[in-house]
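FORM 12-B: Structure-to-Sequence Request
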């Protein structure tokens, strides 16, 4: 008998019929003797419907009241799923985040979990019930309802699994696991049997949208075995766990290729090359709450420098306005930027013991006449910025170059 925390997203519970299917799947685990805690999202489309309602009554609604409203989406789902389970003869009890309670800070719309009191959940499990929990939400120390941000149900599930010391946390989605890259771009991409927390963190931060980044961080911090599975297809999925080195001789050099089209590049030229100039440029960007990713600085012979960095597409307009103001303040030259770029990254713990990975990557891109604009590396990752129009060609070339293509049938 195992204690399992399962999470089902909005599409998995998008209709009464699908909720009944999810209940049937959960009943199978109960029949096998497992204890089950289920975390669910709002039904697909419900959160967007609620957001649209808010815009109809207020241009800038209170964040506190937004959380009160949006949290109702998950409340509907937990009640419906509990009803469906009970109808199938599986005793179930639902809990909102506040009822458990899942205690968070007071950052409405993007709260972080501070603690979980698992007492009530354990009592229900001991009574033989399946516990159905509203994902994405909690309560602050003043009793206000809070939400964790988009994708927060993944974090709820992993946090509960950590608090309960569950044997496994299973994330059910519309894909049957983590692939070497997006199969829509590379049809011969392969499902990974397992991947390390380190690799999954890199993949999630670099553009892979299988799991929310915070949930992977949480799982790695508390060593919660995490498995990605398809909601309605049987299969082993992909296990995300610590690297135990048991199969280090079989460890591939590269586990996956991630890419992100939501990137923008900005350059400020003719910057006086003096101490502290980087802070003068990036300080105002940071103060504007804009995240910076890759940075390149080129020093010229006339004691000036060109400074280039990347930000998310959504922050491009704000960032270029801030940079133009900075250029005037520090006596720099012109400012330019583009949103027509993409970041492509190779990820794998095998890089640590295999030199020459970067050169293989660069050679593969060169063969396709793809120019590299910027480069960034870590112990287990190499990222490059290229022209956005070449991103799919680059991913396919790299997937082949590192031997990730599935064998022809």
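FORM 12-B RESPONSE
SEQUENCE OUT:
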């Amino acid at each position: 008998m195992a204690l399992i925390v399962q999470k089902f997203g909005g599409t998995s519970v998008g209709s009464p019929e699908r909720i009944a299917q999810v209940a049937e799947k959960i009943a199978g685990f109960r029949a096998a003797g497992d204890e089950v805690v289920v975390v669910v999202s709002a039904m697909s489309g419900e959160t967007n419907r609620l957001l649209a309602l808010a815009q109809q009554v207020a241009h800038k609604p209170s964040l506190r009241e937004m959380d009160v409203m949006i949290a109702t989406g998950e409340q509907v789902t937990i009640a419906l799923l509990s009803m469906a389970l009970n109808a199938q003869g599986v005793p179930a009890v639902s809990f909102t985040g506040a009822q458990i309670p899942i205690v968070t800070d007071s950052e409405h719309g993007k709260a972080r979990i501070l603690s979980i009191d698992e007492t009530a959940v354990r009592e229900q499990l001991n009574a033989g019930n399946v516990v159905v929990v509203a994902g994405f939400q909690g309560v602050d120390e003043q009793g206000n309802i809070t939400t964790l941000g988009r994708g927060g149900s993944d974090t709820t599930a992993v946090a509960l699994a950590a608090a309960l010391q569950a044997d496994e946390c299973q994330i059910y989605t519309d894909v049957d696991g983590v692939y070497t890259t997006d199969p829509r771009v590379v049809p011969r991409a392969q499902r990974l049997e397992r991947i390390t927390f380190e690799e999954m963190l890199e993949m999630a931060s670099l553009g892979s949208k299988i799991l929310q980044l915070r949930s992977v961080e949480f799982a790695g911090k508390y060593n919660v075995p995490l498995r990605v599975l398809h909601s309605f297809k049987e299969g082993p999925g992909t296990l995300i766990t610590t690297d135990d080195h048991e199969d280090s001789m079989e460890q591939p050099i590269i586990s996956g290729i991630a890419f992100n089209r939501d990137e923008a590049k900005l350059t400020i030229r003719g910057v006086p090359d003096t101490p502290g100039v980087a802070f003068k440029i990036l300080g105002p960007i940071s103060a504007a709450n804009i995240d910076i990713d890759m940075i390149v600085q080129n020093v010229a012979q006339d004691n000036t420098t060109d400074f280039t960095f990347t930000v998310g597409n959504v922050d491009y307009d704000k960032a270029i306005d801030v940079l133009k103001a900075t250029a005037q303040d520090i006596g720099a030259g012109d400012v330019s930027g583009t949103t027509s770029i993409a970041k492509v990254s190779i990820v794998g713990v095998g890089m640590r013991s295999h030199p020459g990975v970067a050169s293989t990557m660069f050679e593969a891109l060169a063969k396709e006449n793809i120019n590299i604009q910027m480069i960034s590396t870590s112990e287990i990752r190499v990222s490059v910025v290229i022209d956005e129009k070449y991103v799919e060609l680059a991913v396919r070339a790299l997937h082949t170059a590192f031997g990730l293509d599935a064998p022809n049938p």
